[in-house]
Design brief:
This protein is of the alpha/beta class. The chain has helices at 14-25, 57-77, 95-110, 120-126, 151-164, 208-213, 278-291, 337-354, 359-363, and strands at 7-10, 30-33, 49-50, 88-92, 116-118, 139-143, 147-148, 168-170, 175-181, 184-190, 193-196, 199-202, 222-231, 241-244, 250-253, 259-262, 300-310, 317-320, 327-331. It binds flavin-adenine dinucleotide.
Length: 382
């Protein structure tokens, strides 16, 4: 293992390797430390949906810019990441949701996003198999440039390109300590040796809280188990990702034909339990077949769990810590860290390599939680 690096990144999920790629292309000497294998965290468990329809400006901006980057990523990284744009259909079930949608759409359009507000009759033009009466839909929003990519291929593509530009990636290597002197990062200790470095990026998903504690930083993140299933392969039925904030459900049909989706089980408590539950299977099957009754006869093939790393306002924590110089936060994605990774990695790499400050990083800094008036992201599912 190398003994010195310009930057050490903790975590080999999509964010860790994307930052490594951006820093390596900027000419920095980077080491990624991953305790298991690449994409073994939330990245390899996720639904991999890519949505620009958010209620907060920062998430919308990051997602719009990420979609622009996703559009060119296969070519840029030299590997097909299976990015496709089938759109996101967000179902509204009440007047209150319609009003919130109108507010969100006005903000999204002000940022240049092409989003449509649909009445009930237009919903089935997008997803013909939906039972709009059964789910009590009163309207929807649709953005055709939202989509999906393969989370494994995206991670592997970033990692391969990062290595090509000189990054070192150490898998099956765990970070066990971080050292600092006079509030400045000096080194990172791992199970395979110590690396001297002035910068450490924490992209360790739900384990970021424990990593931050190594330098006495308290972050407010909580891990929530999230379950997700895949059915057997079916003929092509629809292209859009369907989501509902009322029911908490999201699902899409993959390129190979499986329906993949999830829903929270009621009253889920935070914790590190990874056991899949029968309650989820029951709740998801009942809700999914209410949305698409013809799925009643379809077999569910796989069911697995992962974690959302959730912050009090459901928005990520990004940027250099105000008290520990060289300690960079990149966590707390609260269920949407895959889709934001292209832009988040760009902003953090520009900050580390050039000192470029962006207003989004300021707004999503850890110290926003000192404020009593938090802006909460409303558009969350799963
Ligand atoms: C069921 C489910 C569905 C989801 N659906 C979506 C979706 O549709 N769209 C979307 O954008 N997001 C979705 N998400 C969220 C998304 O998966 C995450 O926000 C994103 O993958 C986070 O990536 P990351 O690289 O920051 O962290 P992770 O992928 O969690 O990677 C962190 C890595 O750090 C490593 N690590 C931890 N501690 C240490 C240590 N001490 N030393 C070394 N390595 C360490 C872990 O092993 C892990 O590989 C979903 C999540 C789940 C669970």
């Amino acid at each position: 293992m190398k003994q010195k690096a310009d930057v050490v990144i903790i975590g080999g999920g999509v964010n860790g390797v994307a930052i490594a790629y951006r820093l390596a292309t900027a000419g920095l000497d980077v080491a990624v430390i991953e305790k298991n294998y690449l994409s073994s965290g939330a990245t390899g468990k996720c639904g991999a949906g890519i949505r620009q329809q958010w209620s907060t400006r920062e998430n919308t901006e990051l997602a719009i810019q990420s979609v622009h980057l996703f559009e060119g990523l296969s070519k840029e990284l030299g590997m097909d990441i299976e990015f496709r744009q089938g759109g996101y259909l967000i179902i509204n079930h009440s007047k209150k949701e319609l009003d919130q949608s109108e507010e969100n759409v006005a903000m999204q359009r002000s940022l240049g996003l092409d989003v449509k507000i649909l009445d009930v009759s237009e919903i089935t033009e997008i997803v013909p198999v939906l039972d709009v009466k059964g789910i009590k839909a009163v309207g929807a929003t649709f953005c055709a440039t939202d989509g999906h990519a393969n989370p494994f291929l995206t991670t592997f593509a970033f990692a391969k390109a990062a290595k090509k530009f000189g990054a070192s990636i150490y898998t099956h290597t765990k970070v066990t300590g971080i050292h600092m002197k006079n509030h400045q990062i000096t080194s990172v200790e791992t199970t395979k040796g110590t690396i001297q470095t002035p910068w450490v990026v924490v992209a360790a998903g739900e384990y970021s809280k424990g990593i931050a504690a190594m330098v006495n930083i308290d972050i407010p993140n909580k891990p929530y188990r999230k379950e997700i299933l895949a059915t057997e392969r079916l003929q092509p039925l629809f292209e859009a990702m369907v989501i509902s904030f009322t029911d908490g459900i999201y699902f899409s049909q993959q390129k190979e034909g499986q329906i993949v989706g999830g829903i929270p089980i009621p009253d889920e408590k935070p914790g590190f339990d990874t056991m899949p539950t029968f309650s989820f299977l029951q709740h998801m099957s009942q809700t999914l077949t209410r949305y698409i009754p013809l799925l009643t006869q379809v077999n569910m093939l796989r069911h697995w769990t992962g974690f959302y790393d959730v912050t009090p306002d459901a928005r990520p924590i990004l940027g250099e810590d105000k008290r520990v110089k060289g300690f960079v936060h990149c966590h707390g994605f609260s269920g949407h860290g895959f889709m934001l990774s292209p832009m988040v990695s760009k902003l953090l790499a520009e900050y580390i390599s050039k000192g470029t400050r962006s207003s989004v990083l300021d707004q999503l800094a850890l110290d926003r939680f000192d404020n009593v008036d938090l802006t909460h992201e409303q558009s969350v599912v799963g």
